[in-house]
């Protein structure tokens, strides 16, 4: 992991923002300062399906965030 995400998360923490981490890394330093950690599976065994599984996991996680955080407030945003 590069240092930029960690620096941004630390700045967000200073600004009292909530931090949501979506990761496959079990030892990510961001886990320690995140309010919510969404762990994605790491069990991609077949190389040809690896990219598809990664994409599906990312889409599922982002859809879950959308449905739980943004969708209920759509009427307020209009």
UniProtKB/TrEMBL annotation:
Domain SIS intervals: 6-67
Q: Which Pfam families match?
A: SIS (PF01380)
Q: Name one GO molecular function term.
A: carbohydrate derivative binding
**UniProt record, GO biological process:** carbohydrate derivative metabolic process
State the protein's name: Transcriptional regulator
Species, as recorded: Lactobacillus helveticus (Lactobacillus suntoryeus)
């Amino acid at each position: 992991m590069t240092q930029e995400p960690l620096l941004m998360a630390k700045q967000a923490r200073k600004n009292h923002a909530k931090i949501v981490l979506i990761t496959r890394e079990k030892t990510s330093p961001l886990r320690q300062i995140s309010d919510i950690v969404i762990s994605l599976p790491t069990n991609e065994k077949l190389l040809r399906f690896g990219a598809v599984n990664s994409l599906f996991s990312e889409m599922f996680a982002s859809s879950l965030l959308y449905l739980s955080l943004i969708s209920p407030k759509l009427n307020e945003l209009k």
